[in-house]
Design a protein that fits this description.
The structure is a single chain. This protein is mostly helical. The longest helix is centred in the middle third of the chain and has 37 residues. It has one domain. Helices cover 85% and strands 0% of the residues.
C-alpha cells in the first residue's frame, strides 16, 4: 500500500472533486434538459384529460427506454474518446466518434421507422397488464409517439456528439 501511495501524486484537497464536477455538470444539464421535454409535454397535456395524460406518459416511457438503451453506447463512446484523447491519439478519437455516429444512425433510423409505423402497437403493449385497455389512451399515446419519435433521432445524434 505504501508503494502505491508513493507512486500516485497526492492531489490537493478538493481538487479531484472540483475536476469531477467540472466534467460532470454539462452531462447533468443535458440529461435534465432531455428529461424536461417529457415533463413539459405532460404538463401541457394534463389539462386535456386523464386519457391524454396517460397516453403521453406511456409514450414518454417508451422514449425514455430508447434513451436508456442508447446511453450504453454513449458511455462506451465517451470512454473510447477520452482514452484516445488522453493518449494524444486524435485519429483514434475521431474514428471512435465517427463509428458512434454511424452506429446511432444505423440503429436510430430503423427505430424511428418502427416507432412511427407501430406506435399504436407499442402503446398497446405498454398496457398489457390492463384487462381492457382504454382506446382513448392508446390513441393519445399513438399520436404522441408519432410526433416525438422523429425528433428522437436528432436528440440521439446530439447526445452522441456531446458525449464525444
Amino acid at each position: 500500500m505504501a508503494a502505491i501511495q508513493r507512486v500516485l501524486p497526492s492531489p490537493e484537497k478538493g481538487s479531484l472533486r472540483r475536476q469531477v464536477m467540472t466534467l460532470a455538470w454539462p452531462a447533468v444539464i443535458e440529461n435534465l434538459l432531455v428529461m424536461s421535454v417529457g415533463i413539459a409535454d405532460t404538463a401541457m397535456v394534463g389539462r386535456l384529460g386523464a386519457a391524454y395524460l396517460a397516453g403521453v406518459e406511456l409514450g414518454n416511457r417508451l422514449v425514455n427506454l430508447a434513451l436508456a438503451i442508447f446511453a450504453a453506447i454513449l458511455i462506451g463512446t465517451t470512454a473510447l474518446v477520452a482514452r484516445s484523447i488522453g493518449a494524444n491519439d486524435e485519429k483514434t478519437a475521431n474514428e471512435a466518434m465517427r463509428q458512434a455516429l454511424v452506429l446511432v444512425t444505423l440503429i436510430g433510423v430503423p427505430l424511428l421507422l418502427f416507432g412511427i409505423l407501430y406506435a399504436g402497437d407499442c402503446v398497446t403493449f405498454m398496457m398489457v397488464m390492463q384487462e381492457s385497455p382504454d382506446s382513448a389512451v392508446i390513441e393519445a399515446g399513438t399520436v404522441y409517439l408519432r410526433i416525438t419519435i422523429p425528433f428522437l433521432l436528432f436528440a440521439l445524434l446530439m447526445m452522441t456528439v456531446n458525449s464525444c
